[in-house]
Specification:
The protein has 253 residues and is an alpha/beta fold. The protein contains 7 helices and 11 strands. It folds into 2 domains: 164 residues, Spore Coat Polysaccharide Biosynthesis Protein SpsA, Chain A (Alpha-Beta Complex); 81 residues, no CATH class. β6 and β7 form a beta hairpin.
């Protein structure tokens, strides 16, 4: 069982070295870089990765390209702001000793985020299961704008013990920027293109419902101030994406 680890990047010089180091167990590391203007490509190469420069076509398309460029059939996909925990590494190494007929076609892994100085356990942020280890002959990345994921064709999926460690949000300002500049606009575009429409009532209720779901129903309150922040930003995201969707509807009319 030979595994190719893949990472897609753009201006990730602050993260890419540690990401590659956490993949030292892989048989190869493939970094597909979207023409970064910082030292991402150079650092990745110094860290033992094979670096491919390619224009940005979207998340799913870039990750699919990385999978196809890999030398081995087994793919482990990592984001630059993620790390492989020791327990997850041990679980992956245990798979190598199994015969092929005992292996699943894809493995789902829990992702745990570090936010405001604590590891998050609620608010909908954990276990945040991701299918990241898979046979590329059976799986393919799909998703038009956001929330890209691997879809397995006619195969078996199992859970793998251990967490992906996620360091995706630096601080409140970064969180706010991510929502306003990336996630809300992309979510609104995806909703619009899939035929979904919003209304004044939906815009008015989106934020409080999102806050309630994150803070109460998904036990965000257990994470203290961090949980309150996550729920508040979830409310902001819900409001903003519906407002942006309404603007798209208005422009079409």
């Amino acid at each position: 069982m030979k595994i190719s680890a893949t990472i897609i990047t753009f201006n990730e010089e602050a993260n890419i070295r540690e990401a590659c180091e956490s993949l030292a167990w892989a048989d190869e590391i493939v970094v597909v870089d979207s023409q970064s203007t910082d030292q991402t490509a150079q650092i990745a190469s110094q860290s033992g990765a094979r670096v491919i420069s390619r224009e940005w076509p979207g998340f799913a398309a870039q990750k699919q390209f990385a999978s196809e460029a890999a030398s081995h059939d087994w793919i482990f996909s990592l984001d630059a702001d993620e790390r492989v925990s020791d327990q997850l590494k041990t679980s992956i190494e245990a798979l190598r000793s199994k015969p092929d007929d005992q292996l699943a076609d894809g493995y789902v892994i829990s992702r745990r985020s570090f936010y405001q100085g604590v590891w998050i356990g609620g608010g909908g942020w954990y276990p945040d299961r991701q299918l990241r280890l898979f046979k590329k002959s059976r799986g393919r990345w799909e998703g038009k704008h956001i929330h890209e994921s691997v879809k397995i064709r006619e195969g078996r999926i199992e859970k793998l013990p251990g967490d992906l460690l996620h360091y995706g949000v630096r601080d409140a300002a970064h969180h706010h920027h991510m929502i306003g500049e990336r996630y809300a606009p992309l979510a609104a575009r995806q909703m619009f293109e899939s035929g979904r429409r919003t209304s004044t009532l939906k815009i008015a209720t989106a934020a409080p419902l999102a806050f309630l779901r994150s803070y109460v129903l998904k036990a965000g309150f257990r994470d203290g101030l961090a949980g309150l922040s996550i729920a508040s930003f979830a409310a902001h995201h819900a409001f903003l994406k519906h407002l942006m969707l309404w603007e798209m509807q208005k422009n079409i009319k």
